[in-house]
Structures are given as C-alpha cells and as structure tokens.
Design goal:
With 432 residues, the chain is an alpha+beta fold. It is built from eleven helices and 14 strands.
C-alpha cells in the first residue's frame, strides 16, 4: 500500500476536525454579548455623526436663506411701522412691490412664515386662536391683520435681525429613527462606560453655532434586538463556513478512501515479489472468463506451470538468487503470452497462464511450447549461469458442459503432475 496516501488521509481528517474546532471557538468568541454590544454602539455612533453633519448642513443653508430675507432692511422697517400701526398692510405691500421685483413673493412668505422651534421639535406657525394685541406679554410677537400672531423666537436670531422666514427655506428634516429623538440641551453627553449589563446608551452632538444639539438615545429594546440579529447573522455565516469545510473535507476523504480501497483491493490481488496477479485474482478472472465462455460460446485454456529444479537453486545459491530467478521467469512469461492473456503466480515456483480464447486445442499447445522453450533457457545472475525447466499442465474449457473454476484449475494441476511423473520438463493436455 502507498504510505503517502495513508498519511494524506490521516492529515485530512485532522485538518477537518481542527477546522470545525477553530470555527466553533471563533464563533463562540465572536458571540460575546459585550463584543456585539460594543459593535452596535460603535455603528450607532457613526450613524449619529453622519445625521448630525446632515442636520448641521441644513441649518447652515437655512440661516443663509433667512439672512437673505431679513437683510432687506427697508421691507423690515416698513413691516415694523405696520406693526406699530403707523402704516397699513397695503402700504407695506405697495412699498415692497415698488422696491423689489420679488417683493410680492417676499411679502407673502413673510406673512405665511414658519418658525423652527428646536426645543419642542415642532414647526411653529400661526396660532389657532387670535391673541389680543393689547396684552403686554405678547408685544414681542408680530401680528397679522386678522389678529393672529407669527411666533418669533430668539434662540436662533433676535427680533431685531429677523421679522420672518421664507417657508420653503426652513423646512429642516429631523434626525428621527426608531432609536433616536431631537431636542435642545446645553451640554454634550458622551456614551457612558460600558459594563456587563445591557442598558440604554445616549450621546449628544453640537449642531452648528445655534446653541442646539442633536440627541440620540439607544434604548434597551433596540440594543437587544440588534445584538440578537447580529448573533443570528454570525451564526449563519459560521454554519456556512462549517458546512463548506465539512463538504470539502468529506469529498476529499471520500476520494482518498476510494483510492485506499482500490489500493487495498489491488494489493490483495497482486503478488508482491513479481507484481503478477495472485491466486485470488486467478480465481476471479477464471470465473469471469468461464461465465463469458458459456454465454458467447468460446473456448479458453489454463496452463499450470511448475518450475523444475527450482528448489536446488534456492538451497545452493540462497533465497535472494531464487527470488531473482522468479522475477526473471515472470518477465519471460509476460513476453511470451499474448496481451489478451493473463499470467498469475499462485505460490512458490508455481505459475498459471489464462489463455483467454482459443480456436483449437492445438493453439494451447503452441503457446505451452513457446513458454516451455523460453523458461528452459539459462538464467544469468552475476557470474552464475543457471539452468532450470518447466512442467506444464493444460486444461481446456468446454462451453457445452457445466464447468467450475476449481474443476478447471484441478484439471490443469493434474495434467502438470502427470508431466512431473513422466520425466518433467514438458507439457500435457488434461484427459480423463
């Protein structure tokens, strides 16, 4: 058997087991709640920074638009006069239209302005109820002609700088997700130190220069669900890796096992000294040929060969020399027979040749004659020149009779012994 194949097989099994162990250990390590929790928080912090930057940009753009409107000081002054009831609303409108091409639209935007209230996260607008103009605490508000007031806060721009906003310019999208909210605060709260328990996490980041902050809250339910989702994802990927390792290892092991079985099977049918087929192979090959002979109606023959004078060679020159002669006999037999025929060594100095198909009995005799002549030539080993002979018994199958493998081998063996008893170094066909 090929030792390297065995070694590869064992190594592959070890790699297979170690791969599963490593993937399992890696998965267990990665499943740590603290590690997954940390990743969730890191990702959340990153999302918050992106949303903060986007919100800050919108605030900046809105301030520019607000400034563009409020910088129209002349319109602002006229509106202030109207507020003090020094002029009428129509006069304001007429004045703005005479000074600016877009005065009418500016005027309309100012009257229907919106106000962003970051504290309550509400877009302020005209109140639903009219406010009496004589109430002192409402003097800081601007009223329209119907008595409704337009809220003007000082958190972003003071009243002296601003009378109203352009409606479309200040619709700022909020950072709102299932895990977050927006409000105003005066301090930045960082993530609390992580501990072994799952709890809420929060962070606030400054938004521009308006003194407001974005606040995001990572609640316990979201954190738990996110951890579970990520663990499931990791588990699925780990199982896929294990599955791939199992399939690849299984196919490799299956292939190596098949090769090992083939080698084991081949080694059980091969003579290790001469590399010829052995007795077991003789029985299997003869049985197969016998079955075909009965089906297709052809004749085949077995030549049972026993080497004459081999034992004295072993006794005189040693088993090493005897083994060399057996190898040389094997080569001569292979050179003599047809490619369709098979040579077997069935033990000691005994060989069998399976003649796969013959037309006449005389054809078997011709092959036996060639073998006898080839084996009778001297064998030169180092300085030695050794002469031996061969006794050959022949059995012929009969497709018209029910034959067995044992019967055919026994017939050839009996014919070989008849040659031995009648002087050796010859061949003979079995006859009853």
């Amino acid at each position: 058997m090929n030792y390297n194949i065995k070694q590869i097989f064992i190594i592959q099994v070890i790699i297979f087991v170690l791969s599963i162990i490593l993937v399992a250990v890696g998965s267990i390590t990665f499943f740590s709640v603290q590690q997954v929790e940390s990743r969730v928080i890191t990702d959340f912090h990153h999302d918050l920074e992106i949303a903060t930057a986007q919100f800050n940009y919108k605030c900046s753009m809105s301030r520019e638009n607000i400034h563009a409107i409020s910088s129209r000081s002349m319109i602002r002054n006229e509106l202030y006069k109207w507020h003090k009831m020094e002029i009428t609303l129509d006069e304001v409108k007429e004045f703005s239209q005479s000074k600016y091409v877009d005065g009418a639209s500016v005027y309309a935007n100012l009257i229907y302005a919106y106000r962003k209230d970051l504290q309550d996260n509400i877009i302020a607008k005209y109140e639903n109820e009219p406010i009496p103009k004589h109430i002192p605490e409402y003097d800081k508000f601007y009223f329209d002609e119907d008595g409704y007031y337009l809220i003007l806060r000082s958190e972003i721009l003071s009243n002296s700088e601003l009378i109203g906003y352009d409606t479309a310019a200040f619709r700022i999208g909020n950072f709102t997700r299932g895990k977050s909210e927006l409000f105003q605060t005066t301090r930045i709260q960082d993530f609390p130190e992580r501990n072994d328990s799952i709890r809420n996490y929060s962070v606030t980041l400054p938004i521009g220069e308006n003194g407001c902050y974005v606040y995001a809250k990572l609640n316990q339910q979201y954190l738990k669900s996110e951890i579970i989702n990520r663990i499931i994802s990791i588990l699925i990927h780990s199982l896929l890796i294990i599955l791939v390792v199992i399939v690849v290892s299984y196919l490799t092991i299956l292939k190596l096992t098949y090769r090992l079985v083939q080698e084991l099977t081949d080694s059980s049918l091969i003579d290790p000294l001469t590399n010829l087929a052995n007795r077991k192979a003789l029985w299997e090959s003869t049985a197969e040929t016998l079955s075909k002979s009965s089906r297709y109606r052809f004749t085949f023959a077995l030549l049972y060969i026993d080497i004459d004078g081999f034992k004295p060679v072993n006794d005189t020159y040693g088993h090493a020399t005897g083994d060399q002669i057996l190898k040389m006999i094997s080569l001569r037999l292979l050179d003599t027979v047809r490619t369709s025929d098979t040579v077997f060594r069935i033990g000691g100095d005994e060989f069998v040749v399976l003649i796969s198909q013959i037309e006449k009995n005389s054809h078997a005799c011709l092959i036996a004659e060639k073998i006898h002549k080839s084996l009778s030539d001297s064998y030169e080993i180092d300085a030695l020149k050794i002469k031996i002979g061969a006794s050959i018994g022949i059995s012929i199958s009969n497709p018209d009779k029910i034959e067995t493998v044992d019967r055919l081998i026994s017939m050839a063996d009996s014919a070989m012994y008849e040659v031995k008893n009648s002087g050796k170094n010859n061949y003979k066909i079995y006859s009853e």
